């Protein structure tokens, strides 16, 4: 998803550009060079032309310079991935960073290859094994895991028949205390050894003639009970004792370590180590398992290497994916099941309290949002444009709409206007956060790696124009009510003790229900319905403009890899039917989690000292958008700020042009307390945010300082919401 190279547009543009502009664009591109080079394209530095490009700009006006539109070239491994990349630049489509197809193994970096490799590869000397991560393993898992193996060894020695397994546990105790730089190998027992029935003969045969220069020293001799022979009575009895006494306890211990290490992500090598021990090492006959220490001068072992680990911590495991799903989304999926079970089984709050259930339900929305986004991107990449547009328009805002509708239904049933105010706060918080916080944070993080980042100002201008239109349309009923409404105050006090003096009033609002609601039902409500029809129409016009008539604004060209050996067919992670099933299931779970969140938010709203405004604009607004924020940060780190900005702009436009009209349409069929009249704080914060964002994005380039300004303004608005009094009705 990284912009590849900038190339001047050719003669296909017709008479819109003359030869002077073409020469000027070529000169600029020769100086600027490639934005970045990844994938199959090699980076070649540009050579400066004889005539420097500034001479063109000095002789001609700045309009000639701005008229040079450059082409962004992207590489894709296959057709499906190319469709996904192209959809990222389409207005109204969900921007998705992760791959929807399996990347070819040879195209991956060595760091990523190490993440997916099994722990059975012996590498050369890579330095000392005494690292901070390995010491952390010793403190967290190594000492008590080794102690459990010592206890199991003693237990198996007591049984007599399980003595070989006791010796195995003793060897594994030393291994798991510090497994780094050691190897567990499967050795083949010669047939002559199996024919020996006597204990001493078996012991001598097991140690005679077996040595390895690689692993340093002879194969450890296994103590065998008398008359221990393959298939004999004692061997079967020892295996039964092991499977009944020793193996289950070790499975529990290793399973606990495996789950804990997997949840910590950076300790996934430890999880792999313990999982392979349970499924392979502990199920082998004890005489076939050898634990040895690697030395500096080694050659490949003769037997099969089962385990070989060098370090316990790998910070790059945040890139790890299971069937295309990021490891964090995999780890958070059990949280959804726990939330649903606690929420619907413990309805009387006997096990947990309402704030805990609300927190769990809100956290469960994050992985579900990820699965919905992944499913939408997979379906769109494998389908034609019409299907992709329908899926994005239908499910693109399903996360937010699910929560808003369930909150409005609960507020209507309880006759509590506070839920409608919370929904308005969440809508405003999403708008302000996606206009200020999302692009600002991406600018700051991307600016740390890149001194100055450029983006497509023309495509950003389309989103900015739609934002101005949508904000004006959404807040038009609010401005109308303030012009024609009657100011009503709940309580007034004379501060000068003079009947003609000054009065201090509290809980003032504009009353729209004067004269039996004539103003609202005759003027405000028709205006709301008109706006709710015009905004989706404007959204469709924007789609037609950017996707049909003016596609050259984005000017994206997808090219494949042309290096030898890079012709791969698309191996999708999720097929269309699988993605559709996951999309429907995630939507269903999202509805259940939203229902639980609205069910248990009442104690927080009534007992919390924090303003309900602040809860709405922060927690309820931004938590569902965390997957989108992560995508924006990843794009910014790859110097693709255009998509980072488009992520925030598209969400803000969808809030005003799709989500709010849908809520208004919902109130027609299911009457609620939701009216499209916002408080002054929401109006001023939204309008100021849109104006500031357009001012920052005018020149088509930015740095970390401008991003810091946007983030700081966002936190100032949060401080205003934090200290603001609670809205009326709460």
TrEMBL record:
The keyword Transmembrane applies. It is found in: Endomembrane system. InterPro entries: CaH_exchang (IPR004713), NaCa_Exmemb (IPR004837), NCX_ion-bd_dom_sf (IPR044880), YccF (IPR005185). The chain crosses the membrane at residues 135-158, 240-268, 325-346, 358-379, 385-405, 426-448, 460-480, 527-547, 577-597, 643-669, 681-698, 704-724. One of its GO terms (biological process) is intracellular calcium ion homeostasis. Keywords: Antiport, Calcium, Calcium transport, Ion transport, Membrane, Phosphoprotein, Transmembrane, Transmembrane helix, Transport. It is a multi-pass membrane protein. Residues 132-182 form the Inner membrane component domain. It comes from the Eukaryota. One of its GO terms (molecular function) is calcium:proton antiporter activity. Residues 356-475, 579-721 form the Sodium/calcium exchanger membrane region domain. One of its GO terms (cellular component) is vacuolar membrane. This is VNX1 protein. It comes from Phaetusa simplex.
């Amino acid at each position: 998803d990284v912009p590849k190279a900038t190339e001047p547009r050719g003669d296909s543009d017709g008479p819109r550009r003359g030869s002077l502009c073409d020469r000027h664009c070529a000169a600029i591109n020769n100086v600027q060079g490639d934005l970045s080079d990844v994938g199959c394209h090699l980076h070649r530095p540009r050579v400066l032309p004889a005539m420097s490009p500034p001479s063109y700009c000095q002789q001609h006006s700045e309009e000639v310079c701005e008229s040079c539109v450059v082409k962004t070239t992207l590489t894709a491994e296959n057709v499906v991935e190319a469709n996904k990349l192209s959809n990222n630049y389409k207005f109204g489509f969900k921007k998705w960073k992760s791959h929807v197809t399996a990347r070819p193994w040879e195209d991956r970096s060595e760091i990523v290859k190490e993440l997916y490799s099994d722990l059975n590869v012996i590498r050369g000397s890579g330095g000392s094994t005494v690292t901070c991560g390995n010491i952390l393993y010793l403190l967290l898992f190594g000492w008590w895991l080794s102690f459990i193996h010592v206890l199991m060894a003693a237990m198996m020695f007591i049984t007599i028949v399980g003595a070989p397994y006791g010796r195995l546990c003793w060897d594994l105790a030393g291994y798991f205390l510090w497994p780094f730089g050691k190897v567990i190998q499967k050795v083949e027992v010669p047939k002559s050894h199996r024919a020996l029935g006597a204990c001493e003969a078996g012991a001598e045969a097991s140690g005679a003639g077996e040595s390895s220069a690689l692993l340093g020293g002879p194969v450890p001799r296994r103590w065998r009970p008398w008359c221990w022979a393959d298939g004999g009575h004692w061997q079967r009895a020892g295996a039964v004792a092991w499977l009944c006494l020793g193996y289950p306890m070790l499975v529990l211990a290793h399973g606990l370590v495996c789950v804990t290490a997997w949840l910590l992500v950076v300790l996934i090598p430890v999880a792999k180590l313990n999982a392979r021990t349970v499924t392979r090492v502990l199920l082998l006959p004890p005489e076939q398992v050898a634990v040895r220490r690697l030395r500096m001068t080694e050659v490949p072992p003769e037997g099969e290497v089962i385990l070989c680990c060098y370090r316990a911590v790998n910070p790059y495991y945040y890139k790890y994916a299971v069937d295309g799903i990021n490891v964090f989304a995999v780890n958070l999926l059990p949280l959804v099941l726990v939330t649903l079970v606690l929420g619907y089984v413990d309805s009387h709050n006997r096990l947990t309290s309402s704030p805990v259930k609300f927190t769990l339900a809100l956290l469960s929305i994050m992985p579900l949002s990820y699965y919905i986004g992944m499913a939408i991107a997979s379906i769109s990449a494998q389908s034609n444009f019409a299907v992709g547009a329908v899926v994005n328009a239908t499910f693109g805002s399903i996360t937010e709409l699910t929560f808003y509708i369930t909150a409005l239904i609960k507020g209507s049933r309880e006759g509590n206007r506070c839920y409608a105010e919370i929904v308005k706060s969440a809508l405003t918080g999403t708008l302000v956060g996606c206009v200020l916080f999302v692009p600002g944070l991406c600018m700051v993080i991307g600016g740390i790696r890149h001194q100055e980042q450029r983006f497509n100002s023309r495509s950003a201008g389309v989103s900015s124009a739609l934002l101005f239109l949508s904000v004006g349309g959404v807040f038009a009923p609010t401005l109308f009510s303030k012009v024609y409404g009657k100011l009503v105050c709940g309580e007034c006090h004379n501060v000068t003790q003079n009947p003609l003096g000054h009065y201090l009033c509290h809980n003032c609002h504009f009353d729209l229900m004067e004269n039996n609601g004539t103003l609202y039902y005759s003027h405000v409500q028709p205006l709301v319905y008109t706006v709710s029809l015009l905004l989706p129409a404007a959204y469709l016009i924007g789609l037609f403009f950017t996707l049909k008539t003016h596609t050259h604004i984005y000017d994206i060209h997808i090219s494949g890899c042309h290096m030898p050996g890079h012709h791969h067919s698309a191996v999708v992670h999720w097929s269309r039917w699988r993605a559709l099933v996951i999309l429907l299931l995630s939507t269903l779970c999202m509805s259940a989690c939203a229902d639980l969140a609205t069910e248990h938010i009442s104690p927080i709203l009534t007992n919390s000292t924090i303003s309900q405004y602040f809860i709405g604009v922060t927690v309820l607004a931004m938590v569902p958008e965390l997957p989108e924020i992560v995508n924006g940060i990843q794009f910014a780190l790859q110097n693709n700020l255009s998509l980072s900005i488009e992520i925030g702009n598209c969400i803000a436009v969808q809030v005003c042009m799709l989500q709010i009209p849908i809520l208004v349409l919902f109130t027609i069929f299911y009457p609620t307390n939701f009216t499209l009249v916002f408080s002054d704080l929401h109006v001023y914060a939204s309008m100021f945010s849109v104006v500031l964002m357009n001012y920052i994005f005018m020149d088509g380039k930015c740095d970390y300082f401008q991003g810091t300004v946007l983030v700081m303004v966002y936190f100032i608005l949060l401080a205003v919401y934090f200290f603001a009094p609670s809205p009326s009705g709460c």
